[in-house]
Structures are given as C-alpha cells and as structure tokens.
Specification:
Strand content: 5-15%
Radius of gyration: 25 Å
Shape: globular
Distance between the termini: 43 Å
Largest sheet: 5 strands, parallel
CATH class of the largest domain: Alpha Beta
Structural class: alpha/beta
Number of helices: 16
Helix content: 40-55%
CATH architecture of the largest domain: 3-Layer(aba) Sandwich
Low-confidence stretches: none
CATH topology of the largest domain: Rossmann fold
CATH superfamily of the largest domain: P-loop containing nucleotide triphosphate hydrolases
Length: 399
C-alpha cells in the first residue's frame, strides 16, 4: 500500500474516538447490563482521570443504547448549568427537547376567514416543555417531575418500542449544591430521578466525570451510593496498549517496532490520550519521510514529550499559584506520586528539601488544588493527582 493513500489514524483530540478502542470490554459490558434494565434500579457513574477515555467510552455506550432502543439526551455540564435549580432544570429540558421534539402531541384546526387551510401542529419541543414546567405549581422539583412524567406518558403511547431515555452528562463533577445561596441543583437532580424511577419511569442517569464525582454524589444524598453502578476507567495495561498502537496501522507499510511500542507504553503510562498523542506525532514524522522518499529518521521521544508538555500540561500549570506549584513539586518527588500520598508525606519531603511547610498550610493548599482540579481526595487522609503523568511534567521542568 502506498502511504500517500494512508492517513494518520491516531486521534489525540479531546473526546475523539480512536481507530481501535482497546481494553474496555469489561466496562462496556457493565454499561450494557444497565441498559438492559426494564425497571431502572441502577444508574451509571463513569469516572477516571483526564485522558483516560471517559468521553470516548460515553460515545460507545451511546451506540449500545440506541441498539437497545433507548433515546439519548446529552450535554456537558458547565459550572453555570448548576448555579441554580432553575438553570439545571432548563438544561435538562433543553437536552430532552432535542430528543423528543419529533413527537406530535396534538393539532389545532385554524379558524377564521383568513386562516390558511390545515392545522397547527404541537410537538414536544422546548417551548411546549417549558410552558408546562412554568404552569405547574410547586417547587422546582415538582415542576420538573411533572414535566418529565408527562413526556414519558406521551412517549410510551406514541413510541411504544422505546425502552426509555438515557440522560447522559459529561463533566458532571461540576455539579454542586450552593447552600449559601439556598440553591441545591445536585440534590434536585438526584431527588427527581430517584422519584421517577420509583414510579417505574425508565429514565436512566449516566454521569461522567473526575474521581471526585461519586464522593460528591454520596455527600449530597447518602442514598446515591445505592442509585449508581460505578465504572472506574484506569490506564491500559501493556497488552491493550500494544493493541491500541498496532491495530490502527495493521494494513499500513509503516509499522512501530517492538522497542518503539515499549517506549510509547513507558512514556504514556497506558493513558489513551497520551498513547494517541505520541503515536500521532511519531507517525506524522514517518509519513512525511515516506512522502518525500527519505529514510525514516530516528524519532526523538524528548521532542514529542516537549510538545505534549506545551499542548497538555502547560496551560494547567499556568493556572496554579506559586504556593500550589511548590506543593506539586514536593508531590512529584514522592515515590508514590503517581499513586496516592498523604499530607504528612508532603510535609516530610518539604523538610528534606529545607523548604518546610506547616500542616495547616498543606491542608489549605491541597483544598485549593482540589478545587482547581489538580488533586483529588480518594479516601480519608489520602490524595492523588487528578492529572495523569503530571509528576513527570514537573520533573522535566525542574531538570
């Protein structure tokens, strides 16, 4: 095969589906089980670090849902979407309307001498849903429940083969209650869906986000732990990494050597985004050499990592303060920096480096780093970096 007809198959963009989805069979089967429910008793939380492939897997689950005859309402949850209960309710109705607006619910024959022949058609569009929401008495939760119940009543009659509706929200870690403002959008979401599911209305909630998501749900409503099946996405093992690298180019004359594949695995940590990024850069170099009829050069991993640092890490590093950077530097020196660590370990390493930082300062700065999405608390007294391979980036800066 001529390489002129072979495009670079690797896609490191955020949420871009890779040419071969490696190592996610178990996770997809867990999702498939929940999509086979006739009565929804378990929703789904899909968590993992950035770059692990949550958004990609969400798209794969979407295709499975269509095959199981579910409708699908989706969006990314920005912080602004959960500022108030009304904004979250509006977000849900907006996304739902895109899914059910094809359903006709009535016609009104036009009257009058100048009226055109025919009738006005009413569908389950956003304006209709919003009008129903606004005219329903009670709290925001009452209004939203009544509107969603009405939608299912109509849908089950007009489209009897539909199993239900999946409400899929990415970046769901942005959901939060705001007690100071007496606004509880996250509580609203959980309460509404639990209530609907108790009435055997098949609306399934699928939330995707960083590892802080599940603990936030449970802190908001203790029953949330029983509402959700948690699917945790981790980095790929060596075998799956090999498949992710080799299978997209199985019919190409350009192939990665075993040494190159091992190098990609070592420097990517098995994280799908980094695998795609490194392979794309390396493959571009090989394709260019082939196009120009040159000997394929030895590819510098240092050069690729330098570009990765600029494209992925530098923006995040620029958004933390000097004090926060100091803490992150201490963390990067720990033997367990890529696993989990404690505040006490940070204090001990600061002593060794003659840059002592007090326990109160460590706790305060770790809290700020959690809010910044750089660190998360995974159990009592233990923390992890929320950005994979961040420690390696920091060490490269220090070199």
């Amino acid at each position: 095969m001529n390489t002129a007809t072979f495009d670079n198959p690797y896609r490191p963009g955020a949420g871009h589906t890779p040419p071969y989805l490696a190592g996610r069979e178990v996770e997809l089967e867990e999702a498939r089980k929940r999509l086979k429910q006739t009565i929804v008793t378990e929703n789904v939380v899909l968590t993992g670090l950035r770059g692990v492939g949550k958004t990609v897997l969400l798209e794969k689950i979407k295709s499975i849902a269509f095959g199981e005859k579910w409708l699908w309402a989706e969006n990314d949850l920005s912080e602004s979407a959960s500022v108030t209960e009304v904004t979250l309710a509006t977000r849900i109705l907006t996304d739902l309307a895109l899914t059910v607006s094809f359903i006709e619910i009535g016609r009104k024959r036009d009257m009058g001498f100048r009226a055109k022949e025919g009738a006005t058609v009413y569908n389950l569009d956003f304006n209709y849903l919003l009008e129903m929401f606004n005219r329903t008495p009670g709290l925001i939760s009452d209004k939203l429940k009544a509107t969603l119940i009405f939608v299912w009543t109509v849908l089950s009659r007009k489209s009897p083969n539909t199993r239900g509706i999946v409400f899929a929200y990415d970046e769901a870690q942005n959901l939060a209650d705001h007690s100071a403002d007496k606004q509880y959008p996250l509580s609203l979401l959980l309460e509404v869906f639990q209530s609907l599911q108790k009435q055997n209305i098949p609306f399934l909630l699928l939330l995707t986000g960083l590892p802080t998501l599940l603990s936030k749900l449970v802190e908001t409503r203790t029953y949330a732990e029983r509402m959700f099946c948690t699917i945790i996405l981790k980095n790929l093992n060596k075998t799956d990494t090999h498949d992710a690298i080799e299978k997209p180019v199985v019919n190409s004359p350009l192939q990665f050597s075993d040494n190159a594949i091992n190098a990609v695995f070592s420097h990517s940590g098995g994280y799908p985004y980094f695998i795609q990024f490194i392979c794309k850069e390396a493959y571009d170099i090989g394709l260019q050499a082939e196009y120009e009829d040159m000997v394929i050069p030895s590819i510098s991993m240092d050069d690729i990592l330098r570009k990765l640092d600029a494209d992925f890490f530098s923006g995040r590093w620029a958004n933390v303060t000097d004090k926060q950077r100091d803490i992150l530097r201490f963390i990067s020196r720990l033997d367990t920096c890529d696993d989990e660590f404690s505040g006490q370990e940070i204090i001990e390493i600061s002593k060794k480096l003659d840059k002592y930082i007090s326990p109160s300062q460590v706790n305060h700065i770790l809290s700020a780093l959690i809010k910044a999405g750089m660190v998360y608390k995974n159990r009592h007294g233990k923390y992890s970096l929320a950005v994979p391979l961040l420690s390696g980036f920091i060490r490269r800066l220090e070199a």
